[in-house]
Write a structure and sequence with these properties.
This protein is α+β, with helices and mostly antiparallel strands. It contains eleven helices and nine strands. The chain binds zinc ion (ZN).
Length: 344
């Protein structure tokens, strides 16, 4: 009887230890089988063992087996209840679904494109300059060799604030401000917003972004201008892109040129192309050698120094690069449009 009692209490101890290790339904079932299985469960074996007891000891033995059985059943039941209490919570979630992603903000497509342009010039040793968007007539026009009443002023439809203050029509005033402060060599680009009195249409906006560049040093020639712009356009678009220079006029450069690239949409193959209007060419840049009069205005000796300047519309160029038919899309803030440019 003593042995039987010891065996029962040993089972109780072992059961409690095993119970502590149960982590899921499967191990719970295994423990149940180990004790309660009708064939080889520990309780079954104990009932067999009872035959070895004396007849008067058997009722006591039976009670001990029952107390073990009750313990095992109760503990297993309550653990099972704990597991199934978790179930409804778990079933609320379909863990196989992909996670819901928070929409993350991203730079505006024009900002992204501007950064692309900046990176190309930074790699060539240019630095980035900035200046005021409200300018004086002097910096926006006069210092750049547009005297009052000069007919070239008509090409820049200007928004005046007072007789003397205006919203800058190009970023060129910053070229003057930098040359006033700094001696050559100068190698800068000036990205920024500019304003003109335009009615918005697919290719015109009253506010748009420009980037201008200026290089001033000794012995700067038109070859430097051509090489710099060719490298820039080939990096921005593609290596084999066709580029042409056409003579043009700007008051602040002499000689001046317009720079065209082959149409990125039809490559000159489509006479009906809406982007190049069938010409096969897209005007992309204005450029030229800095007019000696501009150097005189900022006290740089034009006998000693020469330089070149160029400018392009960021929005306009982004239109061609991304093949967007209407420039106004950039500023309508339609998220379906903007989200196409989100950086992954
Ligand atoms: Zn075309």
């Amino acid at each position: 009887m003593k042995d039987f009692k010891a065996k029962i209490s040993e089972h109780k101890k072992q059961f409690k230890r095993a119970l502590a290790r149960v982590k899921d339904e499967k191990s719970l079932q295994e423990l149940r089988n180990l004790y309660l299985s009708r064939k080889r469960g520990h309780l079954r074996v104990l009932i067999e063992d009872m035959k070895a007891l004396k007849p008067q000891e058997r009722p006591m033995g039976g009670k001990m087996i029952n107390s073990l059985k009750t313990l095992v059943q109760e503990k297993l039941e309550s653990l099972k209840a704990e597991f199934s209490a978790d179930e409804p919570v778990l079933s609320k979630f379909d863990l196989t679904l992909p996670g819901r992603r928070e929409y993350r903000g991203s730079p505006h497509p024009i900002v992204l494109f501007r950064q692309e342009v900046e990176d190309i010039f930074l790699a060539m040793g240019f630095s980035i300059e900035d200046g005021p968007e409200i300018e004086t007539d002097y910096y926006n026009f006069e210092a750049l060799n547009f005297p009052p009443h000069h007919p070239a002023r008509d090409d820049w439809d200007t928004l005046y604030i007072t007789d003397d203050l205006l919203l800058r029509t190009h970023t060129s005033p910053v070229q003057i401000r930098v040359m006033e402060k700094r001696k050559p060599p100068i190698r800068i680009i000036i990205p920024g917003k500019v304003y003109r009195r335009e009615t918005p249409d697919p290719t015109h906006l009253p506010m748009f972004c420009q980037v201008e560049g200026l290089v001033v040093d000794q012995d700067i020639t038109f070859a430097h201008l051509k090489g710099t712009l060719e490298h820039f356009l080939k990096t921005l678009f593609y290596e084999k892109i066709k580029i042409r220079f056409r003579p043009s006029f700007f008051p602040f450069t002499e000689p001046s040129a317009e720079v065209d690239i082959e149409c990125t949409v039809c490559e000159g193959e489509n006479k009906e192309c809406r982007v190049c209007k069938g010409s096969g060419w897209i005007e992309i840049l204005g450029a030229g050698m800095v007019n000696p009069q501009v150097f005189k205005n900022v006290n740089i000796d034009p006998e000693k120094y020469s330089g070149f300047a160029f400018g392009l519309g960021i929005d306009r160029t982004a239109m061609f690069a991304y093949q967007i038919p209407d420039m106004r899309f950039f500023y309508e803030n339609d998220l379906r449009f903007i989200r196409q440019f989100i950086q992954k």
